[in-house]
Amino acid sequence: MMKHITIIGAGWLGLPLTHHLSDSCRVFASKTTPAGADALKLEGIRSFCFHFEQSESPLSDKLIAQQAEVVIGCFPPGFRQNKQDEYAHYWSCLVEQCKIAQVKKLIMISTTGVYPNHPGVMTEQDANLTLAQDNADFSTSARVLLTAEQHVIDSGLDYAILRFSGLIGPKRHPARFVPKLKQVSSRAPANILHLDDAIGSVRYILEQELSGIFNVTTPETVSKAEFYQAALDTVSSEAALPPIVAQEDKQISGDKLCRCGYSFHYQHTLDALRYL
């Protein structure tokens, strides 16, 4: 396992990942503002300020100074801020800076949002940029994500792309999402991932030196209607679910990662709920 790691994006996922890996590795983590970087330093984290649009010096200079062997990019695509066009560009920039710094491995935290909008079991081979071109089953957002992934695939670097399903954990309790749902299906699976397994899967990829594309999702699940009702029940909420429909949807398969030996902390999404 390579011991010098730089994490780009010390947010909801990147910060606890930094803490977790720091017990055995030399980890640097970035924030987009000086104040954010200073706050991390107060926590004892090797932090630095970096923003793709505002950096005073090339990222490659920082990576070289940090002796980065592995770079982990876990910054969000920014769809809610209408920054999706920038996301693929950021990954293109990150790839080039990693190549200049002669980084040994690049890990991309992606999302199962890359998959087409139709029912069925989705494995890693069911989404790529070629498939998505001129295919109405793939959303515009999916094509943006796949374009970003393609920059990593074509980089010539050793890489791993982890496609995370819907993340839950501290400050991301699924009961909070219910008021924003317009409808919920009794026939669509809840593709969910607990923060513990998000972190655990990254560590496993590092330890086993795995490469390629991997879905990361809790192996067993229930329908979205059952899951979100259970989420409300765990916080004793009296809120009602939105209208329940019987629309089928995709189910993400994490079998590839399991075949590689990863053992999930939570085998079932309802178990993951109980530990929030």
Overall description:
With 276 residues, the chain is α/β, with parallel strands linked by helices. It has a single domain (4-171, 191-219, 252-267), classed as 3-Layer(aba) Sandwich (Rossmann fold), CATH 3.40.50.720. The chain contains 10 helices and 13 strands. The chain has helices at residues 14-21, 34-42, 59-65, 84-100, 129-132, 140-153, 195-208, 224-234, 255-259, 269-274, and strands spanning 4-8, 26-31, 46-49, 70-73, 105-111, 120-122, 158-164, 166-168, 184-185, 192-194, 212-216, 244-245, 250-252. The strands form 4 sheets. A 7-stranded parallel beta sheet has the order 3-2-1-4-5-7-11, with helices on both faces. It has a two-stranded parallel sheet with strand order 6-13. The radius of gyration is 19 Å and the shape is globular. Residues 69-184 form the NAD(P)-binding domain. This is Nucleoside-diphosphate-sugar epimerase. It holds the Pfam family NAD_binding_10.
